[in-house]
């Protein structure tokens, strides 16, 4: 586990940041200045959830789930499930709105960043002293 300690720590830190951003959106405390940028919401969905998939995939040693003989990256799949749950919750929240474009941006970010994670080498530590 020592080899992956860095990725685990970074992922946990990022998860805290992502949670804070999500709660800020639900509480309507995100600065309004950000809305001046065109497509900011879609871009942020792509980047934030893509980075969550990237870091989680590396933190969990690129673990895979095998469904019907197909290998699916476990943690990016879990990130995807949380995206679906979040969009469903937004449907019933007065200050938020569910949007299929956001979900598509989430999925695209998860796919792109998971591919990047697959190409990121994980350093193996030696047990020889």
Task: Explain this structure.
The protein has 129 residues and is mainly alpha-helical. 62% of the residues lie in helices and 6% in strands. The protein contains four helices and two strands. A two-stranded antiparallel ribbon has the order 1-2. The protein is globular, with a radius of gyration of 16 Å. The two termini are 17 Å apart. 22% of the residues are buried.
How would you describe this structure in keywords?
2 strands; 129 residues; 62% helix; 6% strand; globular; 4 helices; mainly alpha
Please specify the SSE layout and strand pairing.
Blueprint lengths: L4 H22 L13 H20 L4 E4 L2 E4 H18 L8 H20 L10
Antiparallel strand pairs: 1-2
User: C-alpha Rg, in Å?
Assistant: 16 Å
Specify the number of helices. Answer: 4
Helix and strand run: HHEEHH
Helix amount, in percent?
Answer: 55-70%
Overall pLDDT metric: 87
Short description:
With 129 residues, the chain is mainly alpha-helical. Helix content is 62%, strand content 6%. The protein has one domain.
């Amino acid at each position: 586990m020592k080899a992956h300690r860095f990725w685990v720590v970074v992922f946990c830190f990022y998860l805290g940041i992502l949670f804070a951003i999500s709660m800020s959106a639900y509480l309507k405390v995100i600065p309004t200045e950000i809305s001046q940028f065109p497509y900011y919401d879609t871009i942020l969905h792509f980047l934030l959830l893509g980075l969550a998939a990237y870091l989680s995939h590396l933190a969990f040693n690129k673990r895979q789930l095998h469904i019907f003989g197909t290998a699916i990256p476990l943690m990016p799949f879990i990130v995807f499930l949380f995206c679906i749950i979040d969009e469903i919750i937004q449907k019933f929240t007065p200050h938020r709105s569910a949007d299929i474009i956001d979900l598509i941006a989430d999925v695209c970010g998860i796919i792109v960043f998971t591919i990047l994670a697959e190409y990121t080498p994980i350093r193996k530590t030696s047990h020889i002293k």
